[in-house]
Amino acid sequence: MSRRAAAPVLLLAALALGGCVVLPPIVPEQGSTLEPGETLAPEAPGGCDGELVIDQPGDHVIGDCDTLTVQGQDIEVVAGDVGALVVRGDGLEVTAASLGTLSIEGQDNDVESGLIGAVTIAGDRNEVTSSAGIGSLVFDGNDNEVSAGGRLGSVTDNGARNEVSAPAL
Predict the structure, then answer these.
(1) Dist CA 25 CA 53 (whole Å)
(2) Per the record, which residues fall in region Disordered (predicted)?
(3) Is the whole model's pTM more than 0.70, yes or no?
(4) 35-79 pLDDT, tens per residue?
(5) 20 and which of 15, 47, 55, 76 could share a cystine (Cβ 3.0–4.6 Å)?
């Protein structure tokens, strides 16, 4: 076998032995185009038919949901627009496009969203970040951090050492 003929065979053998897999490029459907910075996403993320409870550890991707409850430990969720989100447990992470209401019952949870209508936190060391704004905020715990990228409405602090940040208007 000549050196030229052996090169592709050796390359494929090295990739196979190295655990690498050569995949064909992903091409958008005919007639559709990708804008700069846009990525291909699954057609239909995990469904939510009105109400959904996620209580299994792991990473979960769902679309829009009327009521979403995330409870347990070691759970990460990415969601679309959610009417009511209940986070019950410790060390949970949720990212949503927007939230009508957010209720946190637990410790060390992290929630990120666009606009949030109302937030209630009953627990310690939770972190809430809104890239837009938050309509109202109630703390019934300690050492929580809330950040609003836009307007922040009323704040009721029934705990201690809670931190709130929002731009000055």
Answers:
(1) 36
(2) 149-169
(3) yes
(4) 443 333 333 455 677 899 999 999 999 999 999 999 999 999 999
(5) 15
